[in-house]
Structure formats: structure tokens, C-alpha cells
Fold:
Amino acid sequence: MVADRICTHRVSIITGHYGTGKTEFAVNLALDLASGEGRRVMLADLDIVNPYFRSRERRPLLEAAGVRVISSSQACSDADVPALPAELLTILEDRGVTGVLDIGGDPVGARVLARFRPKIVQEDYQLIYVVNANRPEVRAVDDAVRYLRGIEATTGLTCTGLVNNTHLCGETTPRDIQKGADLAQAVSAQTGIPVLCHVVEERLVDPSSDLGAPVFPITIKMKKPWE
Structure:
């Protein structure tokens, strides 16, 4: 599985600018990990920033695939409550669990992790930064790096991997994916952080292309509220 090549650590923390598609990536990643025989996977929806795309909205799909879902607000799926569930400690303390943490898309959203930093740094974790070259705020290399460093400063954690998830929803083209690959490589060159993969919708996967890192094929699971 491609997910095994991406998740080389037990706990994967997914972050990035609002609108980069990090939640879509997190959901597909958790589903792919859960397809491995005998693996216990937990997905923590800790996004208190984005009111539209939350991994908790796909709880039935995820749990049917064997992924246990926890979120910052179990009682009300539409509430923005900056409180972390006690179940998060299960991901951090139970080393038989493979965990995916979907974090809010800015330094403020990432702040929810700060109080857990002493525990996180004792575990086998990776902090993954998702880039999307079609997001105006982070499509320039310096802006993407500045945003990344802000998240690191807020969480006290060090980013260990980049993921290119450049898209335009249903209008995504191979050119968008290549543009994102170029941005990811430029951010990698400036920071020394490796590119883990390029997220590509299955309909756009081209076996003949060489983006310089593995392709992670996905199907769209997160729909807009009006779709």
C-alpha cells in the first residue's frame, strides 16, 4: 500500500493551510491504512477552524472500514469547541494503534496540539504539511515556508514530510498536479523536508508521469455542503 510508504511512523499529524485538502488526504490515508490486515487505525478530527470539511462527517464510511473516529465535539458535529477529547490519549498511549490526526488549517488551529506536545514528542510521530499550489496564500514558496514555520512554532513540533495535494476540486488537471509538485520540491529544497507523496485523484493518475515521489491515488470522500 502507498499509505505504508507515507506513514513510516505510528502517529501521523496532518496539517496545512485552510483549503489545501488536508482532510480529504487524512480520510483517504486512514481508509488505506485500515485496509491492511490486522491493523487498528484511529482518526482524530481535531479541526476547529474549517466549518465545512471535517473528517467526522464521514464517520459511517470510516467506521464501516474499521477506522475508529474521535473528534473535538462528539455531541454536536457542527460546534467549534476548542477542547480535545480524552480519547486522543488512546492514540498517543496505545502503541498498538496507528493514528491519523487531522489538525486545523492554521497556527491557531494547530494550537490545540500544544498542550499535548510533551506526550507527542515521546511517541513515534510525523508532522505532515500539505501544500496546494492553487491556494493564493501559500502558492509562493516563501509564503508556504513561512506558514509551515508558524505551525511548527505554535505546536512546538518539527515537520518531517511534505505532501502535494494541489487541486481545483472537479476542475483539477494534470497541469495543476505538476504545478503542485514543483512547489513541493521548491519548499523541500528550501527546508530540507522530503516530499512524501503527490495526492492524485484516481481518474487523473498517469502511470507514465514522474513527479519525483510516490503517487497516492484517492477518491473524493469530502463533498461540499451543497453537493
